[in-house]
Specification:
single chain; alpha/beta; Rossmann fold; nine-stranded mixed β-sheet
Length: about 350
């Protein structure tokens, strides 16, 4: 790690990740007055992003052509389901389903839907298989959204030959100087690139939503891509500082997210955490949905103070407290109907301006 960014890690630690009290996002290092202006916040935001860039990168210097192709189309009655492929990297071609509601006039609000940790990948999102409550793309196209549901690395049609779903061993052979989380973020941004080529997509009204694996994927995409105007995460947020299994983010086998985090965790250091990442989304609308009794992300009660720290940024810096919310439920690692409906209404409000009752 270069000296400047190494210093940045310790600067972030001074901002709170290792303080005895929980991090207050608007506290600068030392005994200075709390951050209170947009200019002050943007300086801290730049420091947070520099640390994230160092751990998630290096992102490609050149963006390859999408070379998008329509591979097939089906009439589903109220909408069209189109199978498309496009390039995210010169060596990665992504299959995705594009759902287009019939009867839309001009460009419509559009959403990238990221799948959870299931082998079916995009198939569950569009209702072809898996849990009906996770057919988020199907639900949203019925509400009038253009939907793009891509297969993430190691899932769906992208499972390596002879490997189980979410085994990243081939990924690290191809990209030894990168990491799975960084590739996920990059590919999600390329998904937005593809949406923006479609005449049915309103480029000013693009959102993202996902559950679990797709939940934190939604957080990172919105944090990195300002074209995302509204984001929803379901069961995808747990502060690393409160995670009894922090090494889930730095595994040595199966789905290996960010291996460079491992030595930091061993030393008890947390270079960045979810409240910092989510705060980069402000003041764009963000809704988090988590469960008190989540068996995948235990200690999830810590999500409440995490989101309160994020709310500080929205309210005190931007005066946009109505653009952030947190829903806690007791339905385990799931997306129960009442919470899901509220999430869809949140997207309606912020992407269509007509929240449904």
């Amino acid at each position: 790690m270069c000296p400047i960014l190494f210093a940045g890690v310790f600067a972030l630690t001074a901002l709170g990740a290792q303080e005895s009290n929980p991090l207050l996002i608007l506290n600068p290092p030392g005994n200075q007055e709390p951050i209170s202006t947009v200019d002050q916040w943007e300086q801290k935001q730049s420091a947070i992003r520099a640390i994230l860039d160092d751990f998630l990168g290096p992102f490609p210097d050149k963006i390859c052509a999408l070379d998008a192709k329509v591979e097939g189309e089906e009439d589903m009655g109220t909408y069209r389901r189109i199978r498309v492929t496009y390039n995210t990297l010169p060596t990665e071609r992504v299959p995705a389903y594009l759902l287009i509601p019939k009867g839309i006039q001009g460009a419509a609000p559009s959403v990238v839907v990221l799948h959870q940790t299931v082998p079916e990948g995009k198939g569950e999102v569009v209702g072809l298989t898996g849990n009906e409550s996770m057919s988020i793309g199907l639900h949203l196209v019925e509400r009038g959204y253009v939907v793009l549901a891509p297969d993430g690395i190691t899932a769906g049609e992208r499972i390596g030959k002879g490997l189980e779903a979410f085994d990243t061993s081939e990924i690290y052979k191809k990209y030894p100087h990168w990491n799975a989380l960084g590739i996920m973020v990059w590919e999600s941004m390329r998904a937005v690139d593809y949406l923006c080529t479609r005449p049915e997509c309103d480029r000013e009204r693009i959102g993202v939503i996902g559950h679990s694996h797709g939940g934190y994927g939604s957080v990172y995409l919105a944090a990195y891509d300002p074209r995302i105007r509204c984001a929803v995460s379901s069961c995808g947020v747990l502060p690393i500082r409160d995670d009894p299994v922090p090494f889930r983010w730095a595994r040595e086998e199966w789905f290996v997210f960010v291996p460079r985090l491992r030595p930091f965790f061993k030393d008890g250091k947390i270079p960045f955490d979810f409240d910092e990442v989510i705060s980069l989304i402000a003041p764009r609308p963000f809704l988090n949905c988590s469960a008190y009794n989540d068996d995948i992300f235990p200690n999830s009660q810590s999500v409440v103070p995490c989101m309160e720290r994020v709310r500080e940024v929205y309210e005190k810096i931007y005066g946009a407290g109505n653009c952030v919310d947190n829903i806690m439920h007791n339905s385990g690692h799931g997306f129960p109907d009442p919470v899901r409906i509220r999430a869809y209404e949140w997207m309606d409000l912020h992407l269509k301006g007509d929240a449904r009752k």
